[in-house]
Write a structure and sequence with these properties.
alpha/beta, Rossmann fold, four-stranded antiparallel sheet, 9 helices, globular, binds adenosine-5'-diphosphate, binds magnesium ion, ATP hydrolysis activity, AAA+_ATPase, ATP-binding, ABC_transporter-like_ATP-bd
Length: about 260
């Protein structure tokens, strides 16, 4: 199967040996956009970091497969070359590194195979086109990575990186948190621009408002380290109305 396939994934935090993911099952077929919702502290960011291969987390059981490749022991850069991308919940700032240079590095690192180079001209063209789609001023190319960017500008910049890198699967961790309505529109436009039969996305969110603009094929609910149910966009609407308590009762969960 093409896409992401996670089976019975158990993960612990190396630092304190705590098990956070307790048997996650999740399939995101190629071309589909899936939302993941769930209370704070339930393991959503842990799941996304683990898919990218963060060294802070240890897989103790289960498998992560992407487009037929087993990811469990693969380094992060190899995962990125397979087409995986993560937009961070808390984007980092790097003083002294220009945004355009950082993004060009990332594009080179993921797409440059042997003698195939991305020309600087086509890079700059694509960069300006995408910044235009995201309503970003050209000056953001020359500024230091995320330094002095507002919360919303950082999130726009994560989406810009995604549009430049052209991943096959984008994991977007709370890309909509703290955004005003205009920024939310713009970011949704960027994600929708990526839609294709060969692009899939995992959108981690607390709010159904982004899902009004970026229509998910499936909404998953995660609680206490597991996926507990899934449905269509109406599930996100229900959570918005009723919170997690009603769902817990329905599912007979006592967590
Ligand atoms: P979510 O994204 O759903 O809010 P997280 O995956 O961030 O949840 O966190 C799940 C649990 O694991 C929380 O209790 C959090 O404090 C803990 N946790 C996650 N990563 C780390 C880490 N690197 N060190 C210590 N605790 C962590
Ligand atoms: Mg959280
Ligand atoms: Mg999180």
């Amino acid at each position: 199967m093409m896409g992401l396939k996670i089976r019975n994934l158990h993960v612990k935090i190396k630092e304190n040996n705590r098990e956070v993911l307790k048997g996650v099952n999740l399939t995101i077929p190629d071309g589909e956009i899936h939302a993941i919702m769930g209370p704070n502290g339930t393991g959503k960011s842990t799941l996304s970091q683990t898919i990218m291969g963060s060294p802070r987390y240890q897989v103790t059981q289960g498998t992560i497969e992407f487009n037929g490749h087993q990811l469990n022991n693969m380094p992060t850069d190899a995962r990125a070359r397979l087409g995986l991308f993560i937009g961070m919940q808390y984007p980092m700032e790097i003083k002294g590194v220009k945004n355009a240079d950082f993004i060009r590095e990332a594009v080179e690192a993921t797409h440059n195979t042997g003698d195939h180079h991305v020309s600087i001209l086509s890079f700059l063209k694509a960069m300006h086109k995408n910044m235009n789609i995201l309503d970003m001023d050209d000056s953001y190319a020359e500024r230091y990575l995320n330094e002095g960017f507002s919360g919303g500008e950082k999130k726009r910049n994560e989406v810009l990186q995604m549009m430049m890198i052209q991943p096959k699967l984008a994991i977007l961790d709370e890309i909509d948190s703290g955004l005003d309505i205009d920024a939310l529109h713009v970011i949704s436009r960027g994600i929708n621009h990526m839609r294709s039969p060969h692009f899939s996305a995992m959108i981690i969110t607390h709010y159904n408002r982004i899902l009004k603009y970026v229509k998910p094929d499936v909404v998953h609910v995660m609680m206490d380290g597991r996926m507990v149910t899934h449905g269509g966009p109406e599930l996100a609407d229900r959570l918005e109305r009723e919170g997690y308590a009603g769902l817990r009762d329905d599912l007979g969960l006592h967590v």
